[in-house]
What does this fold into?
Amino acid sequence: MPWLQIRVHTTPDHVPAFEDVLLDCGALVVTFEDVHDDPVYEPDLNTTPLWKHTRVTGLFEADADLEHIRPVVEHKAEQLGQTNIDLKIEILEDKDWIREWMDSYHPIQFGKRLWVCPSWREVPDENGVNLILDPGLAFGTGTHPTTALCLEWLDSIDCKDKSIIDYGCGSGILGIAGLLLGANNMVGIDIDPQAVEATQANAERNSITPDRYEVKLPPYDGDLQADVVVANILAGPLAELSGTISKLVKQGGMLALSGILESQAHSVVEAYKPWFKIESIVEKEEWGRIVAKKL
It folds into this structure.
């Protein structure tokens, strides 16, 4: 069965009004999208900022009464004083959306040995290090440049017999990669209970035995330390938590920080200088990774 979608271009202040009017007209779901390439990189805590130019889309059943909906939406625009909403009505053909979504994910190689593979795809290199990971509720599938930077670094170092802490573990992809690359044990730390569930599920999917990994919500043991610590979060929290994260790294251990824009790297480096020697800063698609050694 086909569907109808109605799209309106507006500003953040008017988004709630257009969302309400589309829902009142019978929309089954309303979504927000960026009209231009204007990403929101690091929102403040407990905020959900929208883009300067936002597209509001309502999805309707095919028999929705357009003769009623269109003038209602246009009237709302007049009330808001918005003269140009670029209103578009489109027919959306029905598809096997699950299959469409699954087809968009392919195995990705990081470094020389490591592959991240969806469970429904064939492993491309049976002799490689294959991490089976399905996209889920928690962030981290390897497709984002920051995750890729961390995976490439883990593949480049000797993880054999090391201990690893994945700070802000999300899906657990970094810590699990470290285990598959030879680390003895991993501790994942996150504030989101969904991250705990996702990391546990992904560890089981990769046949990691429970004695080799643990996932913790704060607060955690203050004596916790590891040979290798990876923290792929955001520049603000990385700087604010520099003292906390630094304590997790053993003397002589290695730290990789990501989730950092190129322009933010200097401030993060300054926050960690009291405890670390900075070894490298690598950039990928406007994002950066900082690698440092504990003094």
Observations:
- The first helix runs from residue 15 to 24.
- The mean pLDDT is 89.
